[in-house]
Amino acid sequence: MVKQYFLEEVAKIQIGSRIMNHQFFTREGTPFITEETLLKLLIEDDFNQVPRIDYSINEFTVLQVPAKSILLNKINLKEASIYRCNKAVYIGYGIIAIIPNESVVISDYLFHFLKWYQENKEKRNIYRLMLELPPIDIQLKIVQLLNAIQHLIMNKESLVMAVEELPQRFDHISNLAKQHSKDLHHGFDQIQHLYSEMLHKIFNGDFLNDTFQQLGNQ
């Protein structure tokens, strides 16, 4: 059964604060996310260049959020950059963390929902955002499907680059490699389109209605 919730009913929403003391920064420690570093992580998901803060810092000085938090840089979802964080981090000024209650909503499910809502709905303050949630077992199945598609999209650059580098090693397959490169680009365009279509089908209600109808007929 699908239930409707306000976002703040199923997730904690926290806002980062400005950190003034540069003595807090260390080579080892917990990553500190600002709007600048968030935008870099969206381009290249690499924490090696992210500033870090001493583990022992007072929790009242700077806000730490757990792994699986979803980070945004705008309170209005339509204008926000959205990033799902796989590790605990500190968040700075201008960063909003959505921390899902995973007994009700799986972090990945919420992430995909926010991506869909951003593309298909009107401008909306996240505190006024409503979502329909199926049971956790249905969410898990949806997440497995969407994550598999997204994993292919995220690995596009490395796969295309590997094919495009082949002519440098084998001159006699140059034309063949170029054709495969074109086919890959076309294939990834199709995958991106498939991901968008799946998001719309799932979160627009068609998929869930069909799923529960099938369960009712069993």
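the 2nd protein, sequnce then structure:
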Amino acid sequence: MKIKTLFKTIFYAGLALTLVLYLCHLYGNYIEKTQEPITDYIYNGFEEKSNYKSSNTILITYKSKQYRLHTGDRILNKIKSGDFPKLYYSSKTDYLFFEGDYLPAGYAQATLLFSIILPTIGTLIWRKELDNDIRTM
């Protein structure tokens, strides 16, 4: 495979992944706009993260099923202060999520940025060798 082909593949795969992530973000927004927040759930407490690599976990029981919602410090601090964010349920995916937390648009933006920057920098670095094989990199 040529170096040029590798960078094109990375670019197009990144664009496809960006599209999928952005569509998931739009689907989460669609659920929030078309459905009412759920209110018949039971809050079972939380587990704080044990180290910087893990996330906080909120335990919720909804329709007799236990859900573990992984959240950041922002939502956990709201819950500790008594301000519980709105919860939404997607019946198609059996997914319970806080308002605005289905799939943030930042994931799609980061993927798009990566899929543009990596091939661009690679093309600048290997500009004289783009028609060579990958093994010569």
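The mean pLDDT is 87. Helices lie at 3-34, 73-80, 105-125.
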